[in-house]
Amino acid sequence: MDVPTKMAAARTRLILDKPFFGALALRLALVEADWCRSTWSDGKSLYYNRSYIDKLALEQTQFVLSREAMHCALLHFYRRGHRSRGLWENACDYAVNPLLLNDGLKAPPDTIIAPEFDGMTAEEIYPLLRDEAGRQRQSRDHADEDSTPQPARGPGEPGLGPSEAETLAIKWRQRLAAAAQQASQAGRLSAELAAVIDFMLQPKLPWRSLLAQHLSATARNDYSYTRPSSRRGDPAVFPGLRSEEVGLVVAVDTSGSIRSAEIEQFIAEINAIKGQIRARIALLCCDAEIGDGYPLFFEAWDELKLASEVKGGGGTDFRPVFRWVDRQDMKPDSLVYFTDAQGEFPDSEPPYPTLWLVKGKRKVPFGARIQLND
Predict the structure, then answer these.
(1) In this structure, are strands 39-41 and 29-32 parallel, antiparallel, or unpaired?
(2) Spatial contact of 343 and 317, defined as CB atoms under 8 Å apart
(3) Is 0.85 surpassed by the pTM of this model?
(4) Run of H or E residues at 31
(5) Which of 38, 63, 342, 363 is closest to 199 using CA atoms?
(6) DSSP assignments along 33-52, one per residue
(7) 69: which residues sit within 8 A by CB, 6+ positions away?
(8) Do the beta carbons of residue 137 and residue 95 sit within 8 Å?
(9) In the structure, what pLDDT confidence band is assigned to residue 233 with cuts at 50, 70 and 90?
(10) Which DSSP category does 330 fall into?
(11) Rounded distance between C-alpha atoms, residue 353 and residue 331, angstroms
(12) Which uninterrupted H or E stretch holds 66?
């Protein structure tokens, strides 16, 4: 079987065996390209190296077709921004490859897999790869890759302008939704893929603004009906406008999947908001249990700070934080929990508002959820 025939046959088999991936792959023109070492897509076409495809079995060819189609459907060509191209493309492969393997596709031998990245987005994986690359460059006394111009793969490599990329991103969102709906109606869409698709299609709102809106709504001015002192000789009760200090519990997941820089960014956002709303904060760090030295308490005028060293890295259990709140004399106006939502939740919803700032795609069983990824 010659290579163009193999590519066409693999796509046909995808449409029959894996209709979700097949519907996506059908949107890409198949183009042979000498400059391409294996396969690659710019969102419009799927470029392939003839020698590379010739060495693959038909099932492995289905895998690489699905991989490039998923990169497009997940808008990896659009989401790169100013990141280093090589590291970004590796991060995208680390994010997509497990999805294909878990759906029963057969990977070529050069497929990169890392169990520690399972369930993570390319944006979450990228800084981990960058940090590791930085350590390796330091040991070799090399320059920072992000400041190095990225060479083209070859003279025929295509490129997208910002306007064209944005138009393509809109089209791929529509294609992703249509392919998912068709596969779901046919009972051919796995729960894992459904979760990824739901994550991609949900509105991407700025989490900082949503956090500020939530906390500002909590810090409301309200009327309180209080009886004046009896010494005034007036038994009537009058409404009076009062502005109360807000009591917040802020919990930080310190399990291994949450990076220190992300925790510091979250704390900085809370600091920027809390002075404006007169919030008194109880800060807890927790992985499987509440960390030593916590809770820490901060008045509205205090700078919110972590202990000198955040210890954690174990499994995640959210229940210790909620149990601690239950033991207090008064319920908080709100509990804000920064986490990846991978852990043990309480069996029932607490009698106070809960806001989850979630890094990743996991759902929460109660409360409001704000997507943390930018």
Answers:
(1) unpaired
(2) yes
(3) no
(4) strand 29-32
(5) 363
(6) -TT-SSEEE-SSEEEE-HHH
(7) 21, 24, 25, 27, 28, 41, 46
(8) no
(9) very low
(10) S
(11) 10
(12) helix 58-73
* Structural contact between residues 273 and 267, judged by C-beta atoms closer than 8 angstroms: no
Residue 298 · residue 250 · CB < 8 Å: no
Q: What angle is formed at CA 354 by the lines to CA 116 and CA 273, rounded to 5 degrees?
A: 90
Q: For 11, left (φ over 0), alpha (ψ -120 to 50), or beta?
A: alpha
Question: What does the DSSP assignment read for 9-29?
Answer: HHHHHHHHH-HHHHHHHTTSE
Q: Which residues pair with 30 in a beta bridge?
A: 46
Q: Residue 177 phi/psi, 5° resolution?
A: -65, -40
> Structural domain boundaries of the chain?
3-144+162-201, 207-221+237-371
pLDDT tens by residue, 2-56: 999 999 999 999 999 999 999 999 999 999 999 999 999 999 999 999 999 999 9
Q: Strand pairing of 296-298 and 368-371?
A: unpaired
- CATH class for the domain made up of 207-221+237-371: alpha beta
Yes or no: say if 6 and 58 are a contact pair by the CB < 8 Å rule. yes
Distance CA 128, CA 136 (A): 13
Spatial distance between the Cα atoms of 140 and 135, rounded to a whole number of angstroms: 9
Hey, CA dihedral for 95, 12, 41, 111, is it positive or negative?
Answer: positive
User: What gap in Å lies between CA 326 and CA 335, rounded to an integer?
Assistant: 12
- The interaxial angle of helices 162-185 and 191-201, nearest 10 deg, is 140
Whether 356 contacts 270, CB under 8 Å: no
Is residue 3 within 8 A of residue 56, CB to CB? The reply is no
202 contact partners, CB below 8 Å, separation of at least 6 = 371
**Site of tokens 């790169």:** 80
Q: In 10 A of CB 372, how many CB atoms?
A: 21
